[in-house]
Amino acid sequence: MIEVPASPVLEPGKTCWRIAEADRAAVLIDSESYYAALEDALAQAERSIMIVGWDFDGGIALRPGRSPLPLGPYLRSLAEAKPDLQIHILIWSMAVVHAAGAPLPLLTGLGWPDHPRIQLKLDTEHPIYAAHHQKIVCIDGSLAFVGGIDLTVGRWDTSDHIAHDRRRRNPDGIYYGPLHDSQMVVDGAAARAVCELARRRWRMGTGQQLDRITGAGDVWPAGVTPEFHKIDVAVSRTAPRWRGNDGVREGMACTKALLGAAKKSIFIEQQYLTVMSFGRILARALRRPDGPEVVLIVNDRLEGSAERIYMGGNRDRLLSRLKRADRYGRLRVVHPVVPDIGGDCMVKVHAKLIVIDDTFLRIGSSNLNYRSTGLDTECDLTIEATCDRDRLKIAEIRNGLLAEHLDTTMEAVAARLTATGSMVKALDMLSGGPRSLRQYRIAPLRLGTRRVWGTFLVDPARPLRLLSPLRRLALRVASAGRPSHSRPES
Q1: What is the model's pLDDT at position 1?
Q2: Rounded to whole angstroms, how far apart are CA atoms 319 and 323?
Q3: Could you report how far apart the first and last alpha carbons of the chain are, in Å?
Q4: pLDDT digits (tens, 9 = 90+) for 69-122
């Protein structure tokens, strides 16, 4: 019998839009590193800055206490100093009422955006209740940042996640708690692909076609050491059905392919975890005697009653299934904490990161909830290691994340992994300190693992079609009045 090779995980047209080579790529853990790299790259821009976001607030400082100007005035100063520089900012239209940033500049255009070469637009081209959730910055058409971090309030933090960091305040002076997140930066053909995606978003949202930037110089941020060189990057998209477009669900297909490909380990950092089909893949992996270890880093608590009922309720049902499937003790569900007066301080997990074995690394805007599979617009980047050097680098990134949460070093994590051959055993051995990963309490649920009723309204996987039930009823009534041999019009 001839053995047919397995389909590749990263397959253009199925699990990704396209695969393009990055001359350099790096992972930026937490907003301090991302914002500093971004400020460096923005300063080098000569022709184009394009920002695509879920939310935006021009009043934030990219480096609290060090940036000369807030972000909005800083962008204006760049436009005034560089006569060829065009700045385009595209933000989800409902950010003015739903997101946390200051809405006035987005609504009125007063202040720093009032410049002939700065265009700030609200994207209204989306179905009811859908969000433009991508977090992209493109510079001179040759550098792209993609991940989970918006340029808005409540995002900046260091990797220390100190419980009461005085620098962690919004422009209005209000303090917010520790937050963990991640972003990826790429250049080369991979960056050009992301920039093309951003231009398409601009055209769909505004009707204006932007020219492709060619011949731009090197704007790689000086403070960032590339972790990958000459490596292929898969760009996966998610977009809803809208105005005759069929929609795109490459992000969901990529997630399923990545989880299904795992042989040794699955490491996930996620704000939300509700999609039951992802849970089924993980459960099958845990039931296999030779299946992978699964480490899920999640939030201990969710904000707001709707989040707790639907995002939290569906997550607990999914985790309950995984707990029952964990026959061999290979599952760990944990949440990060740092020390505070009188006990633990929760670190909010906003990251959307997946590491599979030492082979695949994905960072993007997609949560593992339903709306990120087909309702919201999303963009995710995936790297597949094909050589020992890149596999080692992916392992180092995963080990570095564990080290950050466990208040230790990457070398200490690697040593435990080598000694035990197990990621969960290494985690168990290094846990327990004031700053650590605490076990998430998975409550036994009597309601099974079906979705919480009403999820289709709060966390829908596709655009809501509120009139569909009435339309179906009308068709049934009309059909009942026709003779049995009659046929509907084609």
Answers
A1: 35
A2: 6
A3: 47
A4: 999 999 999 999 999 999 999 999 987 777 677 766 776 666 899 999 999 999
> Is-contact 72 113, C-beta < 8 A?
yes
Q: Are 274 and 315 in contact (CB under 8 A)?
A: yes
Which amino acid does the sequence have at 409? T
Alpha helices in 45-142 (DSSP H): 71-81, 95-98, 104-108
Contact call for residues 351 and 180 (beta carbons, < 8 A): yes
Beta bridge partners of 20: 233
Pairing of strands 48-53, 136-139: antiparallel
The whole model's pTM is what? 0.92
Other C-beta atoms within 10 Å of 323: how many?
Answer: 16
What is the C-alpha to C-alpha distance for residues 360 and 125, in angstroms, rounded to an integer? 33
Under the banding of pLDDT at 50, 70 and 90, the label for residue 249 is very high
Task: Give the three-state DSSP class for 238.
Answer: strand
Q: Which amino acid is at 50?
A: M
Query: Which residue in the block uniquely carries the two structure tokens 């002076």?
Result: 173
Q: Mapping DSSP to helix (H, G, I), strand (E, B) and coil, where does residue 439 land?
A: strand
What the block records as the tokens of 143 is 């550098």
Q: Is-contact 294 323, C-beta < 8 A?
A: no
